[in-house]
Amino acid sequence: MMKFQRYLIYLLPVCLSFTIAGSEGRQLPEGPHSKNDISLPPDSSSCQAAYSSLVYPGKDGRLVYQPYTDKGDRLLDFSVCGFMRNEAPIPDVAVVATVTPLQGATTPDGTMAFPIGPDSREQIQNALDRVASRQPGEDGFRGAVLLKKGTYYVNGSLLVSSGVVLRGEGDGADGTVLIFRNPRGTGIQVGNRKAEPIRLGEPTRIADAYIPAGSMHVNVEDAGQFRPGDYIHVTKTTNDQWIKDLGMDRITEIRPENKRVGNWRARTYQLAHVRRITQIEGNRITLDEQLPQSITEEHGGGTVEKISLAGIDSLCGVESLRIVSNFDTSVTSGGEDKAYFSDEKNNLTNGIDLACINGWARDCTVKHARNAAAKTSDPARYCTVRDCKSLEPVAPVLGGRRYPFSFGGGSHSLFYNCYTEDARHAFAAGSRVKGPNAFVNCTALRSTTISEPHHRWCAGLLYDNITLKEGGQLGALNRGYSGSGHGWAGANILFWNCDAESVVVFDPPTPEQNFAIGYTGEIRDEYSTYRLEYANDRSGYEGTPKAGVYKGVPLMGTGYIEHPEQPVAPRSLFMQQLIDRIGSERAAVYGQTSDHGLTKKSVSPDELVNWTLVGKGKVEKSGTQIAMQESDDSKGIMLVSPDAFGSDIIVRYKVMALTPATVLVALVSASDVGASGELTIPEDFDGSLGLFTGEKENYFFAFKNAPHNVTPFVRKSPATGKTLGSASENTMIAGVYYDIEIGKYGEKLWLSVDGKKLFEVKDKEPLNGGHLALRIRGTAGFIAGCLIKDLEISSSLYQGK
Q: What is the pLDDT of residue 43?
């Protein structure tokens, strides 16, 4: 019997002699295919990587950018969007004040959804204010206010100020629940919305005749008043010619009978971009970040003006909260058959509003809000909203409602791995939002309309791996007379490897462009053309040379379109840009959940190749990775860790399946039944799964599961192999490296692929811990093979040496 205990087992090296093609990078193996060969079959061309001609990996793996105009306009680096430019993870700020729910009776309140309870607003706000009065530490933080589990009734709004974090103990129904009564208000305001940059001098004119989008340099008439380190406004001082060239002086002509529609006015589009000076050479100023739009003398040129950001809140956040709005259940819309709650007089307008620098909201769920679960507002910069949910919005399905995640203002901010249901504009940006900003790895279910820059020239916005299921489109277009005259919604808007009913992009009549590159949805015979027709009608393009035409693919319009029926590489532009800028080791931290204070250890290829191989097959080190391959008569093989780990564990690694038949599995907390850390395996064990489903304890995570016609899932054994949770679809193919994260913390278990959480579930009776096993199995008589690298294990009670 092989016996694994809670101490390090030293293993002799295993000498193997097989070679894996495509052993480095996201390359596909080459060669013939048979049951004894782990190369991809010749007919697997759908797995071949496609590349954009505007941004693609160079010989060193770093992205190469090509301008999209002859003036040098280029795609932006969106990896700077987010807390601290994503150069540091969101911190776990120390708790310095703790609040518990008030005790007291609750009273039913007519047809309101929730009763009247003891008002905790003053109690919570006093704690926030006390912490805000503390001197900040060297890291700038004053401390966190912890709201213990339970229900809090809050009549009004809460304000989180500089250096302060408001933290709960979970966003589930059994976590920290805040029930708000704040009609048409905001639940939690993070930072003061009234703060704004302070002007410190007279503006000086820009001397350049043309500055392309993506530039980091500005020449001015006189740079004498500026110094490196200064914050400045780089303002595009648009003129009437800009309005005319955009056609925004003719909006009223499209629908003259609509008296509430107006044309644009140049004086209201003086778009000021906050930047910092890094270098000055003569009158040439180098900026810390790219400009998201062009500045041209023909359209009014621009100015540079010194400013101060001293009065703007910074380093503040909210996390692990369930934010619930009260509402009147007697107000409904939709008729008897499709009735839904639609009260908008008594519920919150927004759950969380970020108006700060380097702020965040993470692991929060917002229910019943009228408009946004989370949004940014001026003067927000470098803010992150991640792993948040918007559920059961309460409002009519009409304009001005149900925008669950939106950029209402600010720049350099990010929505990451967020989820929403029953939205209208699920992921949107408002008027005159000055980028860059980014939505990454976000999912919406049952959207009724388009996710888009919504109106009036949002500049520089990324939609990266955005998925809309059961309804909804993506787009960037001229909205013409919509609303009060929305007009051109945005420019330099990029949709990268997205999935929706359609992605509609139109080409602005300026050097800026809108882009749709790559598609990850299911290929169908036809696609929704609703937004295409909408754009043609509302902007007056129908029957003109500017009209967008449906070409039988999901990416449509007059904008820049590439690879409309397959994804492009890299799978996530945002993540590859981040890797290029700060390195893969630091970038890997960003795409994952926090380590919850667990001890982390990296497992080198030399260590991993010496884990115990169970079943019939081979394992071999190949450069910076290891390769696993089944034998012909295999029933599955796995590598088992020599160490046992505590109950809480987070496993991260990169894995590439080398055949379409390969199913990937990871077993966490694997041990003998009732044991804590011990795992015994028969010496003649053939690798079949029955031992682990019937005789051993473990959490069984299966992914790249399409060969079984099953989506990714987690099961708990030996409890009859009960499925605890599963994903809605398969997302992995052979021949591509994916970032995997498998987590078990407290009662929570989750699986993430490429930073996107496929599912998160709870086990009320969690296992005590045990070994980790990485398993592969082939299907339909074909063997399995895979490459693994960059394995990291964060755990409680880690026993390695």
A: 30
